[in-house]
Amino acid sequence: MIEDKVYAARSILVVGAHAFDAEVIAGPLAAVAANRGATVTFLHLTMGEQGHPCLIPDHYCAQKEKEAAKAAQRLGIDVRNLGLRDAFLPNDDETALKVCDVIRELKPEVVITHWHGSWHKDHRAAAELTRTGFFFAALPTLKRSHDAHTPQLLLFGENWEDDDGFKPEHLIDVTDGFEAWSAAVHEYELARGLSSFPYVDYYSALYRLRGCLRGTRYAQAFAAASHSWNAGAGLFAPPAAGNRKP
Ligand SMILES: [Zn+2]
Description:
Elements (H helix, E strand, L loop, with lengths): L1 H7 L2 E8 L2 H15 L3 E8 L10 H19 L2 E7 L8 H14 L3 E5 L6 H18 L14 E5 L12 E4 L4 H8 L13 H16 L4 E6 L2 H6 L14
Helix pairs in contact: 2-6, 3-6, 4-5
């Protein structure tokens, strides 16, 4: 089961377009995994500094860096920030190499990012940058400061802005991470009324809804990479026991 694979990982990397995206895509899951001993890292490609109606981006960026650090502390995880420009996240190989370098350095078994079907251009870019960064990280002939590394699983999390074609293929029990998630997101002004979108209501209800279908109090939904992606990345499932050669 995907759930067993995720919670067996020693290292998990979650890549979000803006600080707060990784928190909703995989925050409760991160809290559970960290509590079980995994090293979980959120990589914010941008801080989402253009999203405040009154503060100038530099000031909001500083605020969000503090909020992200406090949220990470609540979840028991590490946080990184590539410092790229909100609303102008470049979708190119140079940026994908930055994601590749983080994957090679942290050596996660599991990587989680946005689903590609999003109205938001930065989210579409983040989805593609992570897939390309994953591909670069695994490429042994590509010399970087860290050796090549192939994560074992790529998943796409659920985000209200990324709903075009998203299918909740895998439901993962995150019941034990819900309280930490709730405390973590409330560190952000975004969850305390800054946005007209009711983030906390939406995601609390969503995790409960997924939990109803999973048979637990709370669950998070994920879509898997395609079979051809997994085959291309060398991520074949092990053969059935009866088919193994002696
Ligand atoms: Zn976002």
